[in-house]
Design goal:
The complex is a heterodimer of chains A (165) and B (457).
Chain A lengths: L1 H21 L3 H21 L3 H25 L12 H23 L17 H11 L1 H22 L5
Helix pairs in contact in A: 1-2, 2-3
Chain B lengths: L1 H19 L5 H17 L6 E3 L4 E3 L1 H20 L10 H20 L3 H19 L6 H32 L4 H10 L6 H17 L8 H8 L2 H25 L5 H24 L4 H22 L2 H32 L10 H4 L1 H15 L5 H15 L3 H25 L13 H19 L2 H4 L3
Helix pairs in contact in B: 1-2, 1-4, 2-3, 3-4, 3-10, 3-13, 4-5, 4-10, 5-6, 5-10, 6-8, 6-9, 8-10, 8-11, 9-10, 9-12, 10-12, 10-13, 11-12, 11-17, 12-13, 12-16, 12-17, 13-15, 13-16, 13-18, 15-17, 15-18, 16-18
Classes of the chains: A mainly alpha (165), B mainly alpha (457).
Chain lengths: 165, 457
Amino acid sequence: MTLYLFYFLSFLAVLSALMVVVSKNPVHSVLYLIMTFFAIAGHYVLLNAQFLAAVHVIVYAGAIMVLFLYVIMMLNLNADTEPQKGKWLRVAATVAGGILMVVLVGALRSAADTLPVTAHDNQIGMIKNLGKVLYKDFMLPFEISSILFLVAMVGAVMLGKKEIK
Amino acid sequence: MTTLIVLSALGLVCLFSEILGFRKLLHPIVLIGLLASFVTNLMDWNNGAHLFNEMVVIDNYSVAFMGLMIGITFIWCLMSPDFFTEPSSETDHFALIVFALIGTMVMVTFANMIMLFLGIEILSIALYILAGSHKTKLSSNEAALKYFLMGSFATGFLLFGIALIYGATGSFNLAAISSMISEHHEQNSVMIVAGILMMMIALAFKVSAAPFHFWAPDVYQGAPTVITAFMSTVVKTAAFAAFYRLFIHTFSASPAIWAPTLMIISGLTILVGNITAVYQTNFKRMLAYSSISHAGYMVLAILAMNQSASSSLMFYATAYSISSITAFAILLLVSHQTGSDEIRSFNGLAKQNPFLSAVTLVAMLSLAGIPPTAGFFAKYYIFSAAIQNGYLGLVLIAILGSLIGVFYYFRIIIALFKSESEEKEIKVNTLFRVLLLVTSLAALALGIAPGMLAGLI
């Protein structure tokens, strides 16, 4: 059952990710991206990371994607304003991406001999355990990331501010 | 660790100064804060520690690099007062620079992949914004956007690499990853190989090594000159410190995976950087290509993988940063008063302003690597470290590259002595005079007595 679910979710994720790139209309791209995020959230649930799945749906599929849609609608982008890439650029990008995919598929095919999967604690993804890891083992990165957000915030304010003449 | 706290507090003080109304005092406060962090940093010398559950390692390597970067930032803050007197966003500029410095600090002390990622991101995001800080200028906007898009793409590679390595080893900790790699020395899983190569691509992008250097000239030219100076000194040093730390401390168990690729990257960077620099007529763009070629030499230190490699990298970063910041300070003066970044605007400088042309001479000689300046010994140490590890062919390419380099650095020197002098006289105020004198003397002192720094770490 889980295996079928895994294949279904993976198929959905890959297909909708492809559609994000392929579709001509930016609004459709964003909607497909939401689908991708939901499929990945499903994967998180399969991996016993329930909290992460919920946060992923709320933050990405909810907040960020809505922002995306608003920006696209405000700029009034549609299929016509989409810049047309040259044919050769497309061929080159496809070849480069394809080679990378071949390498990675090759890598993951022979990855069977890596670490044996340890038996999972099915509570591992709950907030309690996550919080313990976050505030004990990963205390410093957790705090440092606040600087990262501060930088982004200061930058957004700086770029958006009116010049004083 | 105190250094990190001092710098974070300094960044917050910068942000609060606007509300509390002491932003006129901010410049001296930042300078004092930088001095304080320099002192607290030095107190960690020979006093290493593993902190926060192996997230951070403070050792002499990190203290030396951190000291260098704080010192260069200090000089940089002195030489760019204009940038900090722009009324609408001076406090933001200060804060972003201090936060960028925190990012570099995380990048030299990391002992965990998460910390590496956070450090690179803090530094990069601050820089994306600073590159676009000249809001009304189109080239600055273009530089910021280009840097942001390409940088995010490279970050994607970094994260993918980290994820693959985590998948193969089950750990973010560098020591654990390193022991995993050396245990399975003979048959490393392909996942590790792919992960290492992807991280290498991301870091090569950050240090602007060929063939991942295409963003550098446009960004360096488009960004405000002071930011370019910061990018080509402090940021490059930090990126190399992180690159070296990651590859030597973690992936050194199996150099067969990455050394051949890195060798090609190094040779290509040296040749591409130097040869393209020859064709530039714009001084700023030429310095951008020169900084690409210097990245190639510094990659040699990573390949050398021996005892003397880390101190030779440190020496090179010091020599390069000092000469580069001198060159940018001169460019700042010249472009400010003649209104152009072209090499032309240096014509006839020797007659007008002997002092300025003398320091230009020292900076160019040092960048070209000609004795008695610091650049010569920097190249000497790196080349000898690389030869010890058997990279004779690569060193020959590097020497060829530096010969090409001499050509375009001397173009500036020749321009100085051209007789066709433009009327406008270039004035140097006392602050710049002292600053340029100090940096040039430092470049000369390191060239005459390299022992001061050579065996440090």
